[in-house]
Structures are given as C-alpha cells and as structure tokens.
Amino acid sequence: MTFTWHRHHPRSDLHEMLHEAVPLDAQEQKILDAQERAFIQRRSMIEMHMQTANRQLSEAITNHPGWTPAVEAAMQHVEQAAADLQRETLVHIFEMRAGLKPEHRAAYDHVLIEALRHGSP
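That's the Signaling pathway modulator ZraP sequence above. Prediction below.
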C-alpha cells in the first residue's frame, strides 16, 4: 500500500479517500509534501533492494530448479525486502498522521483503517 499526497505523483483510490476525508490547509500540505519526498527516496532504495533480491531469486531458480537451499535463501532476501517496504510504508503513514492537525487525525485514521480492512490499492 502506497500513499501519495504529492501533487505530481499518481494518486491511489486510498489517497483520494484520504484527501476527501481530510481537508488539508497550506501548512499541512507543505508538511506532507516534504514527508512524501523523503518517503519516495526511502522507498526507491528499498525497491532497488527488492529488484536485486528478485534477480538473485531468478538466478537461484535458473541454477537450482526446485525448492533448494539456494532458492530458499534467495526467497528470504525477497521476503525481507518486502517486509522492509511494508515497514517503511507504515512509518510513513504515522509520519503523515503526525503532520496533521489533531482535529483531522480521526478522519485520517478512519479512512486508513477501513482501507486496511477492505484491501485498498
């Protein structure tokens, strides 16, 4: 799940729901834009690690077809990269929440929780 508040990036359905539920003022938008730029950089680094792990997995499968120790080890690297991305996304979610005015947090929480319950993109 990726949240994109920045105006210059594609917005998900979740982003649209959050934006509708939480009317941002200029200061909140400025804070969230800065957080989004930092998150994009962190996410890009993790995605590069994920691509590397996927290449290693493909090489392991090519060299050792079947569920072998080499494939298992490569798969663990893929899983770690995916977990890192999920963790970083959750950190970002809470950073964004902290950048909101207290009176906007309940609406943000509601949309986020519903999206997690129902599988938002």
